[in-house]
Amino acid sequence: MRVPSACAVAFVRSPHAHARIESIDAGAARRLPGVVAVVTADDLRGRVTPLAPRLEAPGFRPTAWPALADGEVRFAGQAVAAVVAETAYLAADAREHVVVSYAPLPPAPAEVLFTHEFSAGDVDGGFARAAVVVRETFRHARCSASPLEPRGVIARVTGDALEVWASTQTPHLLRDALAAHLGLPPARVRVIVPDVGGGFGQKLHVFPEDLAVAAVARLTGRAVKWVEERRENMAAASHAREQAVEIEAAASADGLVLALRARLTSDAGAYHIHPLTQAVEPLGTATILPGPYRVPAYAFTLTAVSSPKPPLGAYRGVGMVMAAFVMERTLDLIAARLGLDPAEIRRHNLIPRGAYPYRSAAGLTYDSGDYPAALACALELAGYDELRREQARARAAGRRLGVGLSCYTEYTGMGSDTYRRRGMVEIAGHESATLALEPDGRIGVLASSPSQGQGHATALAQLVADHLGVPIDRVVIAPVDTASAPPGSGTFASRGAVCFAGSVPVAAEMLRRKILSTAAGLLEASADDLVLEAGMVGVRGVPGRGVSLAQVAESAPGLEATAPTDPPGPTFSGAVHVAVVEVDPETGRVAIRKYVVVEDCGPVINPLIVDGQIHGAVAQGVGEALYEALVYDGDGQLLTATLMDYALPVASCVPSFVIGHLETPSPLTPGGVKGMGEGGTIGAPAAIANAVADAVRDLGVTVTRLPIRPQDLVGR
Ligand code: MCN
Ligand code: SMO
Question: If you write DSSP's letter for every residue of 501-513 in order, what string do you get?
Fold first, then answer.
């Protein structure tokens, strides 16, 4: 995006994981040609308040993350000063001339940022009755969401309004945060979201850089632009996942799970993340850990512990990826102890279709699902029995072939009720859509939540076209602009489809009535006799008599309708994944030979999009399973700060897919639609881990960590 006479912002970032800032000498940088300003915490004092998201729940200890580090840095990469210059190159060069004097400090003592305990059912009794008890500790490395397009913000002051273009998933939330932290009324802040090149959860957060860029625009009076560098994205944007889960599972002799105990510890980073807080990862994991299984008793304790690293935040499948990994590995460990086939133990424990709505051991109400059918379908598509025979032949020939299953359920389409219950007060939880009859007869759509690649323009247009009776190419989706779009929370937690399904039919019906009532005047007919079809209003039973939508718009300009929606969910989607892998006996390299997904998100709005979402999400899951880890040394230095060191999956790592669909409608949502955008990432690491464990089981290796490292998979 180009904004006339915009300057560029570059951030000076801390090289230390923990240090006191003794002084900042920006004199030399300020004197360089083309440098407009160097802004530090001193310049922002009284103008910007730190990000301090709240969680209304016991066990929560707040933090304050300043726009620019104020006196102290708490992770390497934290923004310390903002250099403003005429071009991005000048800003980057001038950044080297800002002299920050740090007094390095020993690592800050770890603090508990959030802790929570839960118990339901007779857990001790379950363990007392158990024929087998499995105990294991599972770990997931730190990961990065790694959107192709890094973060980016442009800000300028126009009159008394602050205008911000941002690569964000949450325009209204960002607007409200900017207003609150800069001390402006929300009506004087406008956030516009152009096309977004991927977000994957990272861009649902509000970051200190967002506040800093906006504050710099107000301080300098100039339009300013910051486009994050890849290294900043790796080192200073939110991270994801890092968590350890100690699990104990009690099972009967025939493999029925009787009780679970879990102790979860997340490595939370230095601050709470806005708006989700550090509850997001461990609470997400803990509450969905029992998965689509009948687990009668469950107890957990969770702790989010601070560390000198960037905060953990959302990343596709947040919390749920770890839950599926832990539960699915645990089931395989129980199966191995009892000599059961992995498919058999799952069949045994899955919630039967007739038991929905089902109250899970963690207290969630699963609205719908048919996992026995999904499992049967996945095994069929994979040719499971033949795979097992092939595996036996391969083993006999010295090849390490493994087959892994995972079944998971995921909460999607959540509204205000869920966020209130979790105490996540920074998230409202509702969305809305406005449909407007344009002067040329097209239908303009203003949705409250943007698309960062999920294909909303297509899916939304499809829904509008179907519900209103206009051709799809007569529907125009506008980018989200808080000045015109109706309010909402944003695109995350796989709630887009459920929200559109809630708002579009209602808004379409309201707009249709307005259109028909105007057309009734033009056609001198009763509105009850009129139909809107193929973009024309006609008189029922009188072919040839009608008016176009452009004529309606000319006669009554500005017809529009807005429908808010607050999803009643969560609504639970899920899938069964089957991964077939081969592990190279010499190198430990894992190759994925076959990949099957049977997905159930209720009625599918757009099959091509849904399959594409599965492909992309599984690709990210492959990365988590086999390659991706942000590694820090003992001094808090990030050792994997480039894409040469942080290994994202590339095309050759990603399998081709066999995808099946099951449509078990939700009783809660209009049309029965459920979300699915994160699912593939949840199921893949679990299935791949089980497949790898299966492939190397004769080596006595248990797979307990993600990513799985080749060096752990070769015999010693
Ligand atoms: N869909 C459908 N039928 C259904 C359910 C969904 O056709 N029954 C379609 C929807 O219309 C939408 C897509 O599938 O186009 C995903 O819908 P949904 O599951 O509702 O998820 P959201 O629209 O809320 O998208 C958010 C979700 C999340 S939380 C992350 S993280 C993620 C993801 O989507 N980030 C993505 N997919 C992504 N895809 C891309 N390309 N880029 C990202 O940043
Ligand atoms: S991690 Mo997705 O934006 O909820």
Answer: HHHHHHHHHHHHH
